[in-house]
Each structure stands twice: as structure tokens, then as C-alpha cells.
Amino acid sequence: MSHWRPTECSREELICNVWDNHGVLQHFLLYYFTHLALYGLSLHSDQYYFPRGGNMATGTRNIRTRLLVWLGSSLRITLYFCSGVGLSANAEEADLIDISGALPTVIVDARYAGSHNFVGAPVDGYREAKVLLTKPAIEALSAVQARLAEFGLGLKVFDGYRPQRAVDHFVRWASDLEDTRTKNEFYPRVDKANLFSDGYIAERSGHSRGSTVDLTLVDLTSGRELDMGTPWDFFDLSSWPSSKMPSMEQRANRALLRSVMIAQNFRPLETEWWHFTLNDEPFPESYFDQVID
């Protein structure tokens, strides 16, 4: 079984690496504590500073006010960077697994690693064409594949764990209203300006927690996808599982996929027939950002 860990160092080593490689973090920490010392000085000395043309009492009050403002700003920035350290350290625990190694009969088509996706280019964070998931999600997916094999069917997986930087890439792409190269294939009936308000693009994704998967059904012999009525990642109301627009056969295929996934403790998404999340996901509050390589 091929395992992939978002980090290969101890938590202490990871934090040291972040410190060594982020001079800006060092700068703001030093900035914060320097001004903290200066503020303490101003509390005990009337000789510290007063503005030209002002009096001593006013000058002392001014410097205290300035320092409090500086302290607040630098503290917010420092906390921002420290939260990033916590996110990276947390990712060490995910122990994500490459589907290809764990489930060799599952077809993997990692579209975000190439150009055949709604962005029209390789997506940030996908250095290799792999799909990764947490161990519990892999185990549940194995049971799904085994059940489908009894009927000569199997799974084709498009995406699993998604780095936060990939989600950020989606947001940047959706904000660029001039780039409509993929509109005809992926969102022909949706105005790109409405992708956020319509819920197709968001700043966070459950995929970044490592237990959400996008997939479809295939014929095991031919590898051909079953007809689901729309392609994967098609931004349209017809992609909703409840949509009546697909044919009876297409809706039956969607219902089959939905039933076998639910039977193994996955929950569906009501706006995308291909999207499922493990109910007992191990990291329900974590959003990881380690690259896939």
C-alpha cells in the first residue's frame, strides 16, 4: 500500500522550518516584542518622547496611543502567520493514501493535474496525477468497489484530497471574468460572474479535509463510463442528483452510484451527483494545504 504523508518531519522540525523560511514571520515577531518593550518604557519615563511643539504629558499620551495601535496591528499579523504554522503541523497527522496503490482496480483520472478541467490548466498543488484520501475513506471505497464488481462495474475517481492552494486557485480563476476558455464545456448556461453566488466556487472545500471524493461508475471490462447525464464538474442544475432533466437510464445510474456510496457511510451532495464525503471523516475541522507529489 502506497502511503503519502503531507510532511515527513516532526512537528518541532516543521515549526523550525517555517521559522527559517519565513523571514516575514521573524520580522513581525521582533517588531511586536520591540514595541511591547518601548510601550513599557513609556509608562515609566516622561523623558522618552514628545512631538515637536507639544508638551511632555501630551507627548507621552501620543506615544502610548501609537504603540497600542502598532501592537494591535502586529499582533493580528503575527497570529495570522502562527495560524498557518498550526495548519501545516496538523497536516502531518492526515496520513493520506494514494488510491492507485491501495485500490489498483479503481480507475484514476486526476483532471486537476492536467488541463482538462474548468480552469483549463494544471491546478496549484497538483504536481502529480494522483488522488489521495484518508485511510478510513480508502477502506470505505474498497468496500464500494467490491460490491460493484459483483455486477461487472467499478469506480473511476477524478479527485479526492484537494490542497487549500488549489481552492485558492479556483477563487482567482472565478474572479477573472475575462477568462472564459472553458465555458462551453463546463458552464455553458451559467454567467461566470455568478459562480460564487450560485455556490459553484467557494473559499473552502470539504475536499481539503481528505475524506471527500469525486467519482463515477464504469464498466469493468471496457473502462467506459456509465452515462450520468452530465460530465463531472459540470456547473449546471442538471448536475443535481434530484434533477429531472437527465433520462430515466441516466437517473438510474446516478441512483446506483448514490446507493452504493451511502451503504458504505458516504453522504452525497445535493448539487453534484459525483461528490461524496465520508460521514465519520477523521479531520472534520482541518483544511490541509500540502501539495500532491
Looking at this protein, list some descriptive labels.
alpha+beta; 2 domains; five-stranded mixed β-sheet; 8 strands
Topology of helices and strands:
Blueprint lengths: L2 E2 L6 H11 L1 H22 L11 H36 L4 E3 H4 L4 E2 L23 E2 L1 H15 L3 E7 L4 H12 L7 H4 L25 E8 L28 H16 L2 E4 L2 E7 L15
Helix pairs in contact: 1-3, 2-3
Q: Can you describe what's shown?
A:
With 293 residues, the chain is α+β, with helices and mostly antiparallel strands. The chain folds into two domains: 3-91; 96-278, Muramoyl-pentapeptide Carboxypeptidase, domain 2, CATH 3.30.1380. 41% of the residues lie in helices and 12% in strands. It contains eight helices and eight strands; from the N terminus they run E-H-H-H-E-H-E-E-H-E-H-H-E-H-E-E. The chain has a five-stranded mixed sheet with strand order 3-5-6-8-7, with helices on one face. A three-stranded antiparallel sheet has the order 1-2-4. Helix 1 (11-21) crosses helix 3 (56-91) and helix 2 runs antiparallel to helix 3. The protein is globular and about 50 Å long. The chain starts with a strand and ends in a 15-residue tail after the last strand. The model is unreliable at 1-91 (pLDDT under 50).
